[in-house]
Design brief:
- There is one protein chain.
- The chain contains 10 helices and no strands.
- With 250 residues, it is mostly helical.
- The protein has one domain.
- It is found in: Cell inner membrane; Cell membrane.
- Belongs to the ABC-2 integral membrane protein family.
- It comes from Paracoccus denitrificans (strain Pd 1222).
- Keywords: Capsule biogenesis/degradation, Cell membrane, Membrane, Polysaccharide transport, Sugar transport, Transmembrane, Transmembrane helix, Transport.
Length: 250
């Protein structure tokens, strides 16, 4: 199984990032441009970000976890379609395809986040310390949540292609309601009551707690995020286990 997973990872690295010399550069440059755009737009309208005084760090700690979730969920959802030719071999299973995509994309995103935030600290000479335990927990929760959503969507999007279009429409507001631009703590009570059920709010809050020692993020619940992620993950695996042969015949 390990050899199969590694082989699938190497194939994706070659096809996704290895087709051009700039493939790996764009993996880093895209989130950098996203953070720069947010910084420029909001620094013109606000005197200071929601936490601290550095706009790039504030928006990076919100945008990068969201980008990791979105990319991981989308990539995992396409696992069966992407690896369909190899799933015809008895030695390759849908679980191999899922694991390969999850591991590769988690490692890629963690490396990108380390490069981008590390660059911000170096360029702006920001002081420490960083609570690496909170940062690690936040990225682990994002990875688990992205995997859970991706695995369930892997079944739904393969079995019902129209679901892919519906999903993209339904999740467009996530970029605005996941705490990238604002702090959950400063929202009106009615908004907080609704936004608390967005698991990404908790992940972003935990991420920012790691970089801002005075930020408590008392609202966040790791158990809620883990519960949602595992429920989606187990439901997706159960549906794929029962129906993956039918999906491959489509």
């Amino acid at each position: 199984m390990a050899r199969t997973v590694v082989a699938l990872m190497l194939r994706e690295m070659a096809t996704t990032y290895g087709r051009s010399a700039g493939g790996y550069i764009w993996a880093v440059l895209e989130p950098v441009l996203g953070v720069v755009l947010l910084t420029v737009l909001f620094s013109m309208a606000l005197r200071s970000p929601g936490l601290g005084s550095n706009f790039p760090l504030f928006y990076a700690t919100g945008y990068l976890p969201f980008a990791m979730f979105s990319g991981l969920a989308n990539k995992t959802a396409a696992s069966i379609r992407y690896s369909r030719p190899f799933l015809a071999y008895p030695s390759v299973t849908f679980v191999d395809a899922l694991i390969a995509r999850v591991v590769l994309n988690v490692l890629t995103n963690v490396a990108v986040i380390a490069i981008v935030i590390g660059g911000i600290f170096v360029i702006y000479q920001l002081p420490g310390p960083v609570d690496m335990a909170s940062v690690f927990e936040a990225l682990l929760l994002v990875a688990l949540l992205g995997s859970g959503v991706g695995v369930l969507n892997c079944y739904l999007m393969t079995a019902f292609p129209i679901w892919e279009h519906i999903w993209h429409i339904l999740t467009r507001p996530l970029f605005l309601v996941s705490g990238i631009f604002f702090l959950y703590d400063l929202m009106p009570a009615k908004a907080q009551d609704l936004l608390w059920y967005n698991p990404l709010i908790h992940c972003v809050g935990l991420m920012r707690r790691g970089f801002y020692p005075t930020y408590e993020a008392s609202y966040l619940s790791r158990a809620f995020v883990v519960g949602v992620a595992l429920t989606l993950l187990l439901a997706g695996l159960a549906l794929l286990e029962r129906n993956h042969r039918k999906l491959l015949e489509r």
